[in-house]
């Protein structure tokens, strides 16, 4: 299987700790979602396919007062598939950024359109600011003592730090975009 897939993200998560589908979906919402998103339905569908491919297996676990749950874990075949993927070269991702195209296109819009774009960039910036705040809160919660980390926690933390750095870079760029948009006069020319 070439390239990153949901299967690989699930294998990594289950190697970190076996989980039910619900627990796995919550992990995606909380931490894995920082770099790979999936809906609960996608996760359950892919788990079934991975079970058919003998990459994961499920054990029925009884719960007091609740229905039994399936706890998923990685099989030797799944570990082998992950190792093969881990050792394969990574191709640079193509960047597709709709907002960047809209910003370039603003040169051909009127002042009302540029005002709408300004509001959209502000909204977009607020979303990234909230994401950064979530990452920083997660860092404080999950990695309070850098000296107490093992290899797994160190690697998890370096991925999170990458997300933090990315969000800070996006916010810096959006601040530049906002400053630039605010310098345009009604004719679309930059004021000195």
TrEMBL record:
Keyword DNA-binding: yes
Domain of life of the organism encoding this protein: Bacteria
Pfam families: PadR, Vir_act_alpha_C
GO molecular function terms listed in the Swiss-Prot or TrEMBL record: DNA binding
Residues covered by the Transcription regulator PadR C-terminal domain: 95-182
Keywords: DNA-binding
Sequence ranges assigned to domain Transcription regulator PadR N-terminal in this UniProt record: 10-82
Record-linked InterPro entries: Tscrpt_reg_PadR_C, Tscrpt_reg_PadR_N, WH-like_DNA-bd_sf, WH_DNA-bd_sf
Entry keyword 4Fe-4S: no
PANTHER family for the chain: TRANSCRIPTIONAL REGULATOR YQJI, TRANSCRIPTIONAL REGULATORY PROTEIN
Protein name, as recorded: DNA-binding transcriptional regulator, PadR family
Originating organism: Micromonospora auratinigra
Biological classification of the source: Bacteria, Bacillati, Actinomycetota, Actinomycetes, Micromonosporales
């Amino acid at each position: 299987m070439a390239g990153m897939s949901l299967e690989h993200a699930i294998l990594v998560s289950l190697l970190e700790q076996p989980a039910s589908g619900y627990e796995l979906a919550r992990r995606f919402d909380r931490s894995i979602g920082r770099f790979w998103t999936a809906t609960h339905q996608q996760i359950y569908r892919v788990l079934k396919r991975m079970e058919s491919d003998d990459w994961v297996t499920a054990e029925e676990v009884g719960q007091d007062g609740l229905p039994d749950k399936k706890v998923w874990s990685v099989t030797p075949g799944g570990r082998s598939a992950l190792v093969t993927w881990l050792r394969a070269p990574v191709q640079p991702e193509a960047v597709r950024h709709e907002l960047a195209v809209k910003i370039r296109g603003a040169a051909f819009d009127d002042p009302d359109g540029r005002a709408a774009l300004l509001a959209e960039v502000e909204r977009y910036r607020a979303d990234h600011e909230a994401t950064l705040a979530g990452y920083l809160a997660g860092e404080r919660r999950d990695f309070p003592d850098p000296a107490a980390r093992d290899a797994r926690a160190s690697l998890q933390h370096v991925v999170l730090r990458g997300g933090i750095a990315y969000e800070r870079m996006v916010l810096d760029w959006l601040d530049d975009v906002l400053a630039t948009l605010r310098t345009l006069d009604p004719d679309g020319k930059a004021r000195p």
